[in-house]
Design a protein that fits this description.
Peptide Deformylase; five-stranded antiparallel β-sheet; single chain; alpha+beta; three-stranded antiparallel β-sheet; about 30% strand
Length: about 170
Protein backbone atom coordinates (compact mmCIF):
# COMPACT_ATOMS: atom_id res chain seq x y z
CA UNK A 1 0.00 0.00 0.00
CA UNK A 2 1.37 3.46 -0.77
CA UNK A 3 2.29 5.60 2.24
CA UNK A 4 0.69 9.03 2.44
CA UNK A 5 3.32 11.68 3.08
CA UNK A 6 3.15 15.10 4.64
CA UNK A 7 1.57 17.49 3.64
CA UNK A 8 -1.19 15.12 2.43
CA UNK A 9 -4.34 16.50 4.12
CA UNK A 10 -5.60 13.04 5.14
CA UNK A 11 -2.80 12.91 7.71
CA UNK A 12 -4.37 15.85 9.57
CA UNK A 13 -7.88 14.37 9.62
CA UNK A 14 -9.39 12.47 12.54
CA UNK A 15 -10.12 8.86 11.60
CA UNK A 16 -13.66 7.56 12.05
CA UNK A 17 -14.46 4.67 14.41
CA UNK A 18 -14.79 1.19 12.98
CA UNK A 19 -18.38 -0.03 13.38
CA UNK A 20 -17.81 -3.76 12.80
CA UNK A 21 -15.01 -6.21 12.12
CA UNK A 22 -15.68 -7.34 8.55
CA UNK A 23 -13.75 -9.38 5.99
CA UNK A 24 -12.73 -6.15 4.23
CA UNK A 25 -11.40 -4.73 7.52
CA UNK A 26 -9.39 -7.92 8.06
CA UNK A 27 -7.94 -7.56 4.55
CA UNK A 28 -7.05 -3.94 5.31
CA UNK A 29 -5.26 -5.05 8.50
CA UNK A 30 -3.32 -7.73 6.60
CA UNK A 31 -2.31 -5.19 3.94
CA UNK A 32 -1.23 -2.74 6.65
CA UNK A 33 0.93 -5.40 8.33
CA UNK A 34 2.51 -6.27 4.96
CA UNK A 35 3.16 -2.57 4.29
CA UNK A 36 4.71 -2.08 7.73
CA UNK A 37 6.98 -5.09 7.24
CA UNK A 38 8.00 -3.91 3.76
CA UNK A 39 9.63 -0.80 5.24
CA UNK A 40 12.88 -1.48 7.14
CA UNK A 41 12.67 -0.60 10.83
CA UNK A 42 8.99 0.38 10.59
CA UNK A 43 7.31 -0.66 13.84
CA UNK A 44 3.82 0.78 13.47
CA UNK A 45 1.28 2.07 10.99
CA UNK A 46 -2.08 3.84 11.23
CA UNK A 47 -4.81 3.42 8.62
CA UNK A 48 -4.80 7.07 7.56
CA UNK A 49 -1.12 6.69 6.61
CA UNK A 50 -2.35 4.40 3.82
CA UNK A 51 -5.29 6.63 2.93
CA UNK A 52 -8.05 5.00 5.00
CA UNK A 53 -9.82 7.19 7.57
CA UNK A 54 -10.69 4.39 10.00
CA UNK A 55 -9.43 3.89 13.55
CA UNK A 56 -7.12 0.91 13.12
CA UNK A 57 -3.42 0.57 13.88
CA UNK A 58 -0.83 -2.17 13.56
CA UNK A 59 2.41 -2.40 15.50
CA UNK A 60 5.23 -4.85 16.07
CA UNK A 61 8.31 -3.68 17.99
CA UNK A 62 10.02 -7.06 18.43
CA UNK A 63 12.86 -6.43 15.97
CA UNK A 64 13.70 -2.89 17.05
CA UNK A 65 16.87 -2.45 19.15
CA UNK A 66 15.17 -0.03 21.59
CA UNK A 67 12.51 -2.59 22.53
CA UNK A 68 12.49 -3.87 26.10
CA UNK A 69 8.77 -4.72 26.39
CA UNK A 70 6.77 -6.15 23.50
CA UNK A 71 3.45 -7.83 22.86
CA UNK A 72 4.49 -8.91 19.37
CA UNK A 73 2.29 -8.12 16.41
CA UNK A 74 -0.79 -6.16 17.47
CA UNK A 75 -3.76 -5.07 15.38
CA UNK A 76 -5.90 -2.67 17.39
CA UNK A 77 -9.25 -1.35 16.23
CA UNK A 78 -10.64 1.82 17.83
CA UNK A 79 -7.68 2.17 20.23
CA UNK A 80 -8.04 4.50 23.22
CA UNK A 81 -5.40 5.38 25.81
CA UNK A 82 -6.89 4.86 29.27
CA UNK A 83 -3.72 5.28 31.35
CA UNK A 84 -0.62 7.38 30.63
CA UNK A 85 2.06 7.70 33.32
CA UNK A 86 5.56 9.08 33.61
CA UNK A 87 7.47 10.79 30.84
CA UNK A 88 10.20 9.85 28.42
CA UNK A 89 11.67 11.94 25.62
CA UNK A 90 13.15 10.24 22.59
CA UNK A 91 13.74 10.60 18.87
CA UNK A 92 10.86 9.47 16.67
CA UNK A 93 10.66 9.03 12.95
CA UNK A 94 7.64 8.50 10.73
CA UNK A 95 7.06 6.99 7.29
CA UNK A 96 4.81 9.95 6.51
CA UNK A 97 7.67 12.38 7.26
CA UNK A 98 10.68 10.83 5.54
CA UNK A 99 14.04 12.42 6.19
CA UNK A 100 13.06 13.82 9.57
CA UNK A 101 13.15 12.77 13.21
CA UNK A 102 12.00 14.71 16.24
CA UNK A 103 12.59 14.66 19.98
CA UNK A 104 9.14 14.01 21.42
CA UNK A 105 7.96 13.76 25.04
CA UNK A 106 5.59 10.83 25.61
CA UNK A 107 4.16 8.89 28.53
CA UNK A 108 6.59 6.21 29.70
CA UNK A 109 3.84 3.71 30.57
CA UNK A 110 0.43 3.37 28.96
CA UNK A 111 -2.64 1.19 28.93
CA UNK A 112 -4.72 1.14 25.75
CA UNK A 113 -8.01 -0.55 25.05
CA UNK A 114 -9.53 -1.46 21.75
CA UNK A 115 -10.86 -4.37 19.74
CA UNK A 116 -8.92 -7.15 18.06
CA UNK A 117 -9.57 -8.68 14.65
CA UNK A 118 -11.68 -11.35 16.34
CA UNK A 119 -14.08 -8.63 17.52
CA UNK A 120 -13.12 -9.14 21.17
CA UNK A 121 -12.04 -6.36 23.52
CA UNK A 122 -8.29 -6.16 24.13
CA UNK A 123 -6.13 -4.26 26.58
CA UNK A 124 -2.43 -3.55 26.14
CA UNK A 125 -0.39 -2.43 29.16
CA UNK A 126 3.11 -1.53 28.05
CA UNK A 127 6.12 0.67 28.69
CA UNK A 128 9.20 2.08 27.01
CA UNK A 129 9.56 1.99 23.25
CA UNK A 130 6.38 -0.02 22.63
CA UNK A 131 4.41 2.57 24.66
CA UNK A 132 5.89 5.34 22.52
CA UNK A 133 4.93 3.54 19.30
CA UNK A 134 1.39 2.95 20.54
CA UNK A 135 0.99 6.66 21.36
CA UNK A 136 2.53 7.69 18.02
CA UNK A 137 0.05 5.56 16.05
CA UNK A 138 -2.97 6.70 18.07
CA UNK A 139 -1.85 10.29 17.44
CA UNK A 140 -2.04 9.57 13.70
CA UNK A 141 -5.67 8.50 14.09
CA UNK A 142 -6.38 11.88 15.70
CA UNK A 143 -4.64 13.79 12.89
CA UNK A 144 -1.60 14.58 15.06
CA UNK A 145 1.89 14.32 13.57
CA UNK A 146 5.25 14.47 15.33
CA UNK A 147 5.56 17.99 13.92
CA UNK A 148 2.63 18.93 16.16
CA UNK A 149 4.40 17.54 19.24
CA UNK A 150 7.81 19.21 18.94
CA UNK A 151 8.50 21.87 21.54
CA UNK A 152 10.92 23.89 19.40
CA UNK A 153 12.82 23.79 16.10
CA UNK A 154 15.85 22.50 18.02
CA UNK A 155 13.89 19.26 18.51
CA UNK A 156 13.83 18.54 14.74
CA UNK A 157 16.66 16.55 13.15
CA UNK A 158 17.47 15.23 9.69
CA UNK A 159 17.17 11.46 9.64
CA UNK A 160 20.61 9.94 9.65
CA UNK A 161 21.85 6.75 8.08
CA UNK A 162 22.91 3.96 10.37
CA UNK A 163 26.27 2.77 8.99
CA UNK A 164 25.98 -0.50 10.89
CA UNK A 165 22.61 -1.39 9.40
CA UNK A 166 22.86 0.45 6.09
CA UNK A 167 19.34 1.69 6.75
CA UNK A 168 17.80 4.87 8.02
CA UNK A 169 18.06 5.31 11.77
CA UNK A 170 15.47 6.04 14.46
CA UNK A 171 11.95 4.75 14.68
Amino acid sequence: MPIRRYPDPILKERARPVEAVTPSLRRLAQAMVATMRAHPRCVGLAANQVGVLRRIIVLDTRAHPRTTVTHGLQVVINPVLVVAEGEVTGREGCLSLPGLTAAIARAARVVARGVGLDGEAIEIATAGFEAVVLQHEIDHLDGILILDRVRSEEDLFPRRRSPRLGQRGSQ
